[in-house]
Amino acid sequence: MKIVAVTACPTGIAHTYMAAEALEEAAKKKGYTIKVETRGSVGVENELTDQEIKEADAVVLACDTTVPMERFAGKKLVSAPVAEALKGADAMIDKALKAEPYGQGGGKTLADQVADIKEQKSAERKGVYKHLMNGVSFMIPFVVAGGIAIAISFIFGYNAFEQEGSLAAYLMGIGGGGGAFGLMVPILAGYIAYSIADRPGLAPGMIGGSVAIQLNAGFLGGLVAGFLAGYIVQLIKKYIKLPKNLQGIMPVLIIPVLGSLATGLLLFYVIGKPVAALNAAMNNFLTGMSGANAIALGLIIGLMMAIDMGGPINKAAYAFGTGTLAAAVGTGSAVMAAVMAAGMTPPLGLALATILFKKKFSFAEKEAGKAAWVLGASFITEGAIPFAAADPLRVIPSIMVGSALTGALSMAFGSTLTVPHGGIFVFFAVGNIPGYLIAIAAGTVVTAFLVGTLKKTVE
Amino acid sequence: MTLINENLVVLGLEASSKEDVLTKMASIAAQQGKVNDVQGYTTAVLHRESEYSTAVGFGVAIPHGKTDAVTEPFLMFASVEPIDWAALDGGLVDLVFLIGVPEKEAGSTHLKILAALSRKLMKSDFRDGLRAVKTPQDLLQLLKESDIGL
Q1: Of A15, A81, A87, which has the smallest distance from its Cβ to B89's Cβ?
Q2: Which domains does chain A have, with CATH numbers?
Q3: Which of B111, B120, B126, B127 is the best substitution to test chain A (most A C-beta atoms within 10 A)?
Q4: Which of A45, A72, A46, A44 is nearest to A59 (CA)?
Q5: Which of A230, A249, A310, A376 could share a disulfide with A347, CB 3.0–4.6 Å?
Q6: Which residues of B participate in catalysis according to the annotation?
Q7: Is B17 exposed, middle or buried (0-12, 13-18, 19+ CB in 10 A)?
Q8: Where does the sequence pass through the membrane (chain B) (predicted)?
Q9: Is B55:B61 a contact under the CB 8 Å cutoff?
Q10: Which residue of A has its CA nearest to B107?
């Protein structure tokens, strides 16, 4: 039997190595071969190669911190705290050999796998990217609620909300600048700061976000305010040391007041105006863009949405799209529309391919294809990952071409969207539906035929 | 590199609890100029201890702390009368390796030594050797011979 293992703990001074030793001893007693990757204070040592993982009969993880997991997909795997390996390395190895394969298969449906992958990705996010995505993920519900309320208000007529006391006016009050859309930037900034500096970051971050709104610095200003507030609070926590009996006033007095004043004044006096100018320039560029430029942007967005299917590049395009929404109240954003369309086509195209080219897919993939329709229609690009993981060199280029076409067509037809998420369930918020449907259908068909042509017949 | 010296070895330390052991060891480390804030260092070590016990079984505990209260990295050894340390295997602890690392420590040499020591502690003949030593010099000799890079 061949075993591979990973040990890791937060301080990484001792237990990582003791667990490694315990696992090595236990394996030796059983006559198994083992290789243990240690992730301790010295860094990653004895790193497992793909070949070793491939040859291993089972994987043992004794880790108190997150470790890269994708590489173990499909392997029998057991995961437990470091302490477990010190207590019973022997039992862990036995358990691993009887374990369910990790990730793919193991009786899990495509939707479950996608949920796992998403969760894992969010756990792996680091640094600036992690903070940004924390802000964006807290902001999305506000944008969805606001966008949909505004969209319903427009059903009564584009100017209906100007009639005081009407339902349209109330809907605009809930969704518009006085309601959900007004909270968007403060929430974004607040939760970026929260991610950086924990709870004390929230107030200075949200206040910084409202300052950004006053300066007309929009989404971009919110980003800047969030990071500024977060790091300022970190500095305050680090450098302002109060006597022990006064420490209680740090979170209720010192940090909120100092943090908010420092963030706010820096925005007003120094950073706010240039950021506002940049934000205005970006919005003018986007709204003024037409013809070939718009199509090129749609193409790039499409490529970005498909290349890593929910990874950092996809999320960068997505965050950009939601940012354009803030400046597009009333008209809807063409960029957002292209982002959503291009994010829907990879799973849709693969689902279509499993029907048109039955011989090119395994039974499991054909079953997964059924779920991929739903995931694609709901704008969950990650639905393509299981297909791409099985055959990346043929699948990823195919979905990139399909999404690029969809993005470009959506821009060319001038389709717009007032909400950031929802797939077919928010099509009532789409401007120029016929064009939008053509764009999505074209990308789906092209993806399906490319995948079908490139993929080899399954034996 | 002098991570440990005979002044940092205490055979038969008298102490009533794990907190007492840690405070007494930290005070000795402070006398040797390794720690500039006994209370700060002890707090850091106990905080680490509260995450889960560093008593890893077999009668051995390896408490450790990475904090500004440490001026230079050190390793300390003490043998004590068996004492409760909330050990993973439920047993008592009679061998204590205390580890101190400064917060801003960049080098990794001493970490490699500690890693090697941790591995060594899982071997029963090494632990038996630790229990058999009669003088601090013997202990240092044992550590030297154990091939962990000290």
Answers
A1: A87
A2: 2-102 (3.40.50.2300), 127-288 (no CATH), 291-454 (no CATH)
A3: B111
A4: A72
A5: A376
A6: 64
A7: exposed
A8: none
A9: yes
A10: A42
